Amino acid sequence: RTHFYDEGARVWVREKEQLVPATVNSCGDGTLVVTTDYGEVRIKTAEVTREKVYAMHQSSIDGVEDMSALAELHEAAIMHNLYQRYQKDNIYTNIGSILAAVNPYKQISGLYDLEKVHQYSRHQFGELPPHIFAVANECYRCIWKRHDSQCVLISGESGAGKTESTKLLLQFLSEMSQNSAGTPASEKTTRVEQAIVQSSPIMEAFGNAKTVYNNNSSRFGKFIQLHFSECGNIQGGCVIDCILHSYGSVTPHSDHTRSSCTCCVEHFSSSYTQSSAVMLCHHL
Ligand SMILES: Nc1ncnc2c1ncn2[C@@H]1O[C@H](COP(=O)(O)OP(=O)(O)OP(=O)(O)O)[C@@H](O)[C@H]1O
């Protein structure tokens, strides 16, 4: 059966078993011409079946903050939504209560400043655009809402931004702790919070290495446990590293040593170290 589309309509085109987002250039005279987001293809009208070309749903055209609201749930729609948002510097997208983050590999102005911390601390999850601070805030509030410890699991491939996300979580929690009712005015910046936030570069100095994927790649997974008092301030914590690799020394002058070592580490680390967890423990 033949389908007709208006000029400018957004459609999905199936190419080699993959769906590709495209825009209709013209439709008529026996030919449908579409420009895919990656180039141009021509399709004869006779071949235009629902299998090969179909209209894009409005939710995919506009993009959505929460992917559970996408009407089209296939891999191409998910990737397209993430990509559209990423192009507008919206690197965070919700999938229900899960947060997907796309590494921007650049500083996005104002995204993590103190004002943002305060803004997200005053709103419930879902009220503001998706953000790592929204997850951190929900987690912090849930210690008391659910009367139980909370855990954030951060997972992704090498260079995805797990370490940076962990540091942002700690930054938010540290700020919340300092502003909690339980912190005396004389101790607004306690040594516990400082120690936790500042421990990251020290850990990285010992445990990180340059790899093909990431100039500052963690060679171990981290389990960070934070203990909160009833009043909401951090009273202590610990960082447990898992699977620290040691494959001999790497010298900056030996390219061969570096690449073989990197290969070896990547091979062994891929299945073990690609996650970190932050656990927020309900009072001591
Ligand atoms: N939210 C962000 N904003 C800006 N840059 C970021 C962000 N997240 C990550 N990056 C950049 O990407 C680099 C890699 O991120 P990160 O070290 O967190 O990855 P990773 O997932 O921990 O990788 P690995 O598993 O190899 O340790 C960082 O050094 C930083 O330059």
UniProtKB/TrEMBL annotation:
Keyword Protease in annotation: no
This protein's name: Myosin motor domain-containing protein
Keyword Signal: no
A GO term, aspect molecular function: ATP binding
Annotated binding of ATP, by residue: 156-163
InterPro entries: Actin_motor_Myosin, Kinesin_motor_dom_sf, Myosin_head_motor_dom-like, MyoX_N_SH3, P-loop_NTPase
SMART domains: MYSc (SM00242)
GO biological process: axon extension
Cited SUPFAM superfamilies: P-loop containing nucleoside triphosphate hydrolases
